[in-house]
Amino acid sequence: MNAPLIDVPLGEDRSVEQRLPSSVLTLVGEHDISTVATLTHELARVIGEADTNPVLDLSGVTFMDVSIVNVLLRTNLDLRRDSRELVLRAPSPNARRLLDLCENISPLGFHFVGDGRQVEPSAA
Question: Both ends of the chain: CA-CA distance in Å?
């Protein structure tokens, strides 16, 4: 039986979903500066409700820009202060491409799972 689903519509086929009681948040559709506030709020809520590492499922992302990467970086830095980390699950090809480009510029230190290229978390 699946856990209940919270779906926060952002318009134009974009949403943030969460299955409860879980620390998994799913992004769907296009995410850019216009969805930063909602994403930041939802991540904070998920982090506050669970003691485990939050998981952000990126498999449904069709587009994301650097403003979203910035939210993920800030979130991960905040979590590391509490010996936790943000886990990125199954990034779509578009999301993975942007994350790889950013990683080539400066190490991001994300823990990826479920994309066929599992990477161990980096030591901070």
Answer: 38
